[in-house]
């Protein structure tokens, strides 16, 4: 590889938000002098935290390349995210382009009259030749705007610096009209920036984020940052979150903060992204090290990257006293119930779903034939935690494995499955290859009562049953969005996409469907009329059974001291139940 003739010269970005009302900005990137005959300039085809190829380059227009004298340079587009600039003599190169940024929910780029959110993956081009060079970013923004980033501040307002492009791409910028709070915890500096009005309580958010950040030290020893930024968007509908090395972006509808359930969703999401600061951003699987921004980054361990993060998020809240034991165990119960209602659990392992993540879709086929790295990754993480606690007589847990990964495989290293098994053997003295084959490389089929009994818990969905057709409607439509594999409707030859018309000759509506199902008893034969490819058909369905009550976790009868000790070693809190099996108040 031919190097730049100017070692360690900065790559300079200038972003002029000149038409915010039209979601437009002008971007220029100045590269140091180089003596190569061709300079490749790229915009990533995906962003970190979302394992999917995105059409990011579609937001680019009016691409121009010039030499250091300002003369145009010839270029050609060679891929969706690549421009090749021809050079005839050593020169600095500046490229400019118009950027369209109106993709708030993708958490890549959004510009309007009140703010701009800029993730470099969808905003700032780079050259592989200068990927390791220092970076300067300067923004030109409307009057009254304030700019924030996890990057270090530059010499002037609205400017930032980064050690290289990898830091830049993992340090999004929020600029605009926003609310700001700052706090210190355990010697680290934190900032909270909220864009958009809503029913949130800034002081409560700061109080609880303070607790979450410090509770992280019950898993890891030390922090991979000195300063951390929480960016929150109170939106008109967009929702989701993305982790970065020194910050996170969290999006929720603006009036989804005040009620307890809504607030727990927010603070749990914040905890999830904060856990990622270690698990993914400080250490991650080999297939993601270093990031290849122009191609898919394959790994069979994405279930650890995401599912294990989900596993720890509410543990932080529980240990910090933000979430009650009742709320925590209700969430675990929901996850177990979701697993039992997902036929794909019988089809796909967490290793396979990790490798499939880049092309994974949703809908009927996915639910029937797939699992996902979050939900099943959570359950496999819990099973591994239980196994490690049992094998070490409560001396080591899954938290210790995460600390070991942090100590031994922090970037620029990456870890693989054999490395994880090796660390497990060091912690426990036992060989985990058989466990790995059964739980990671094979679709999981857990006896949850047997598993949970270690911690003195059991599942309970009651004795009552109700009628189940094994199909779901698509919102307010009569079109079927899902038909459970091997369920009642599936056995009758009904499929997703069919449009329901009548049940036993009587018209059904989206609102009446659920109640109409309960007019029947388990085992009844029912005639279901549907449009199948616009052709009216009637099919006979045998009503199946499902539990009437929600699955819950309850204490076993007469839990032993050993079970209570396991519970505390697992979650870090004392046994939360009375002798009558009720939660302590």
What does this structure look like?
The protein is α+β, with helices and mostly antiparallel strands and 585 residues long. 26% of the residues lie in helices and 28% in strands. It has 15 helices and 30 strands. The strands form eight sheets. A seven-stranded mixed beta sheet has the order 4-7-2-1-11-14-13. A five-stranded antiparallel beta sheet has the order 8-9-10-15-12, with no helix packed on it. A five-stranded mixed beta sheet has the order 16-17-18-20-19, covered by helices on one side. Strand 19 and strand 20 (247-253) form a beta hairpin. Helix 5 crosses helix 8 (375-391). The protein is globular. The relative contact order is 0.08. Residues 1-7 have low confidence and may be disordered.
What brief labels describe this structure?
585 residues, alpha+beta, seven-stranded mixed beta sheet, five-stranded antiparallel beta sheet
In short:
The chain is 26% helix and 28% strand. The chain is built from 15 helices and 30 strands. The strands form eight sheets. The chain has a seven-stranded mixed sheet with strand order 4-7-2-1-11-14-13.
Which residues form runs of ≥5 with pLDDT under 50?
A: 1-7
Name the quaternary structure.
Answer: single chain
Query: How many H/I helices?
Result: 15
Pairing-aware structural class of the strands and helices?
alpha+beta
Number of strands: 30
Strand content: 25-35%
Quote the average pLDDT.
96
Q: State the end-to-end CA separation.
A: 66 Å
The main pleated sheet reads as: 7 strands, mixed
Helix content: 25-40%
Across the major sheet, the strand order is 4-7-2-1-11-14-13
Shape: globular
């Amino acid at each position: 590889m031919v190097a730049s003739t100017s070692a360690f010269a900065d790559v300079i970005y200038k972003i002029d938000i000149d038409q915010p009302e039209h979601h437009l900005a002008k971007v220029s990137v100045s590269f140091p002098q180089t003596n190569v005959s061709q300079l490749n300039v790229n915009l990533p085809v995906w962003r970190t935290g979302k394992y999917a190829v995105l059409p990011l380059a579609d937001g680019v227009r009016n691409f121009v390349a010039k030499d250091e004298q300002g003369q145009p340079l010839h270029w050609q587009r060679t891929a969706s995210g690549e421009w090749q600039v021809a050079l005839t003599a050593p020169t600095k190169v500046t490229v400019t382009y118009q950027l369209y940024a109106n993709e708030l929910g993708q958490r890549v780029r959004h510009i309007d009259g009140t703010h701009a959110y800029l993730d470099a993956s969808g905003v700032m081009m780079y050259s592989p030749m200068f990927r390791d060079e220092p970076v300067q970013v300067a923004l030109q923004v409307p009057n009254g705007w304030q700019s924030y980033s996890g990057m270090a501040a530059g010499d002037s307002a609205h400017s930032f610096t980064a050690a290289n492009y990898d830091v830049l791409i993992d340090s999004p910028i929020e600029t605009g009209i926003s609310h700001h709070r700052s706090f210190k915890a355990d010697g680290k500096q934190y900032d909270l920036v909220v864009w958009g009005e809503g029913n949130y309580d800034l002081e409560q958010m700061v109080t609880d984020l303070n607790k979450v950040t410090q509770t992280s030290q019950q898993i890891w020893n030390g922090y991979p940052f000195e300063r951390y930024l929480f960016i929150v968007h109170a939106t008109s509908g967009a929702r989701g979150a993305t982790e970065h090395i020194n910050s996170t972006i969290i999006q929720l509808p603006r009036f989804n903060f005040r009620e307890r359930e809504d607030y727990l969703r927010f603070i749990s999401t914040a905890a999830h992204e904060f856990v990622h600061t270690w698990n993914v951003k400080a250490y991650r699987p080999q297939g993601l090290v270093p990031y290849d921004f122009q191609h898919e980054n394959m790994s069979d361990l994405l279930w650890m990257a995401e599912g294990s993060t989900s596993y720890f998020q509410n543990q932080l809240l529980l240990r910090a006293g933000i979430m009650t034991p009742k709320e925590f165990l209700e969430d675990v119960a929901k996850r177990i119930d979701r697993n039992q209602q997902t036929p794909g659990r019988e089809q796909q392992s967490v290793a396979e779903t990790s490798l499939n993540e880049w092309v994974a879709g949703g809908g009927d086929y996915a639910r029937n034939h797939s699992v996902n790295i979050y939900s099943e990754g959570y359950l496999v993480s819990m099973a591994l935690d239980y196994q490690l606690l049992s094998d070490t007589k409560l001396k080591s847990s899954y938290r210790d494995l995460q600390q070991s990964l942090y100590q031994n495989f922090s970037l620029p290293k990456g870890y693989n499955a054999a490395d994880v098994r090796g660390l497990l053997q060091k912690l426990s003295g036992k060989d985990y290859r058989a466990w790995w084959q059964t739980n990671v490389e094979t679709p999981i089929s857990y006896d949850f009562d047997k598993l949970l009994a270690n911690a003195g818990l059991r599942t309970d969905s009651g004795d009552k049953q109700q009628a189940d057709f094994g199909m779901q409607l698509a919102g307010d439509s009569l079109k079927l969005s899902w038909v459970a594999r091997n369920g009642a409707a599936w056995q009758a030859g009904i499929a997703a996409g069919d449009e329901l018309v009548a049940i036993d000759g009587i018209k059904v509506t989206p609102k009446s469907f659920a109640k109409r199902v309960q007019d029947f008893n388990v085992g009844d034969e029912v005639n279901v009329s549907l449009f199948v490819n616009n052709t009216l058909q009637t099919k006979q369905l045998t009503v199946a059974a499902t539990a009437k009550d929600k699955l819950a976790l309850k204490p076993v009868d007469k839990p032993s001291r050993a079970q209570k000790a396991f519970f505390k070693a697992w979650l870090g809190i004392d046994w939360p139940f009375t002798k009558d099996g009720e939660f302590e108040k």
